[in-house]
């Protein structure tokens, strides 16, 4: 019997059903894309097809690494942090003299994920927001260049905070004791977070397109409306409540709170990256993911939902 099939069968039933449900949604999206082909403008249809095809690849990669195990998953999220940080530096006005500092920031990524592999929560939680935050301005001072010092120090700190520290909380969910979550184990927590985060983005978009009129922050994101925000958060809360007992150690009521947290945090994360792009005068942060833009465009909501959901679950159940 194929090893991958055996690995899938070894997963809890709730995880198997969750993965099957996501695949069915992708199938439905692919079918809808084919049916809408003749009704959409060529450019709009091409973008939709690219988005769905990219979702197939992204979901496939995530499912494979989660099924293989903890080590593969940690490596995957470390690589994701590297790609996100590299993309952030590619859009920032980086000083030529800062190259050695930037190299040091890349090198600290495997070290940070090493703390996760060791299950050393005490170091994990302070390594970047304390020690690395103190290291960055000191390292820049040693270069002897003062022009642009404040902008460089703060932008590098923020880049590392969002792309490495925030995203790494998804990886740390995989390290939490599985016996505390008999329904779905560590993988259940990751699937719950990732699915609700992405679902919230889609729900807010659909509600906004359907009923949205009053804009929230038109100077930052003109497509964000109160109807989209409230409708998306409400839908995410409802889904979070339903899925919580199946994938997490949370009760249905706690799942309602998790859905609220993810809905609001995802909205703020999306807006934050939108504001960054507006400040820099760019449309997308990159072109790595066809139809979606760059890594930051796809992980903007996750940068906020991951650490907040992690601590919500950690202090409630662990």
Automatic annotation (TrEMBL):
<feature type="transmembrane region" description="Helical">
    <location>
        <begin position="121"/>
        <end position="143"/>
    </location>
</feature>
<feature type="transmembrane region" description="Helical">
    <location>
        <begin position="97"/>
        <end position="115"/>
    </location>
</feature>
<feature type="transmembrane region" description="Helical">
    <location>
        <begin position="187"/>
        <end position="207"/>
    </location>
</feature>
<feature type="transmembrane region" description="Helical">
    <location>
        <begin position="155"/>
        <end position="175"/>
    </location>
</feature>
<feature type="transmembrane region" description="Helical">
    <location>
        <begin position="56"/>
        <end position="85"/>
    </location>
</feature>
<dbReference type="Pfam" id="PF01148">
    <property type="entry name" value="CTP_transf_1"/>
</dbReference>
<feature type="transmembrane region" description="Helical">
    <location>
        <begin position="252"/>
        <end position="273"/>
    </location>
</feature>
<keyword id="KW-1133">Transmembrane helix</keyword>
<protein>
    <submittedName>
        <fullName>Phosphatidate cytidylyltransferase</fullName>
        <ecNumber>2.7.7.41</ecNumber>
    </submittedName>
</protein>
<keyword id="KW-0472">Membrane</keyword>
<feature type="transmembrane region" description="Helical">
    <location>
        <begin position="227"/>
        <end position="246"/>
    </location>
</feature>
<keyword id="KW-0548">Nucleotidyltransferase</keyword>
<dbReference type="GO" id="GO:0004605">
    <property type="term" value="F:phosphatidate cytidylyltransferase activity"/>
</dbReference>
<keyword id="KW-0808">Transferase</keyword>
<keyword id="KW-0812">Transmembrane</keyword>
